[in-house]
Amino acid sequence: MSENNLSVPIARDIGGLRAAVRNWRRQGLRIALVPTMGALHAGHLALAQEARKRAERTVVSIFVNPAQFAPNEDFARYPRNLESDRAILQNAGSADLIYAPGAADLYPDGFATRIVVDGPARGLESDFRGHFFTGVATVVAKLFVQCRPDFAMFGEKDYQQLLVVRRLSIDLDLGVDVIGVPTVRESDGLALSSRNAYLGPEQRTIAGALNRVLDSVAERARAGVSIPQAEAEGAAALISAGFDRVDYVAVRDAWSLAHLPAFTGPARVLAAARIGNLRLIDNKPV
Q1: Fewer Cβ close by (within 10 Å): the C or N end of the chain?
Q2: CATH architecture of the domain formed by 194-285
Q3: What is the pLDDT of residues 144-170, one digit of tens each?
Q4: CATH homologous superfamily, domain 2-181
């Protein structure tokens, strides 16, 4: 059911969501979906603003998806404040409906289906978080089926996820145009993320180096430095900057994320590195 004491209503179950969608469809309106896990920031608002350009109605979903967290990850402490998120969307005027389902709406008793993805899901994040893209693909497919949007907005910060979801929509004939939205960054270039709040002052200074190192790797690859050398230099630079561990620095094909023998066209440099217990990811075009 929906709560309407503020002008951005909340649908807390599938019935409330579908009632709103049916009403909009009767009016011939296009619908965009912005899937989020809440803890909204300017990056999420950029997604919603892009949705406004393409559709007459925008749904922002807020659901912290347990299926994409491993047992040792931060599901329990992931920030949750629905009323704060609602106020942010209200002040920005960037949503017509918040869809905030409970776990039972996405994973009811007896739920036994998972979507296994390949293609752009192979390697990189999958090498370190083997569960992740199955969890993402399953919940996104559910949200697409429940909302039936014309468009769905995903940030380029999670570039591999963007390509996986785009492939998912095509392969399963879901009919959703998956739109990538450029990364929103802080003044030193750090990509906005809800997890940035976990950074202490010293860690925050170190984190700002990630963006600069990615730019350097991209520049070196464009200049003709071999891709393995540019990647190795980038990983070493992150360690020198204070990161505790580098999971990967990789230059890949921009559309498939396939390995590149040499830089010959559109590519992306992607990285994941850890400061203490916090893992940061980012990417830049080459």
Answers
A1: N
A2: 2-Layer Sandwich (3.30)
A3: 999 999 999 999 999 999 999 999 999
A4: HUPs (3.40.50.620)
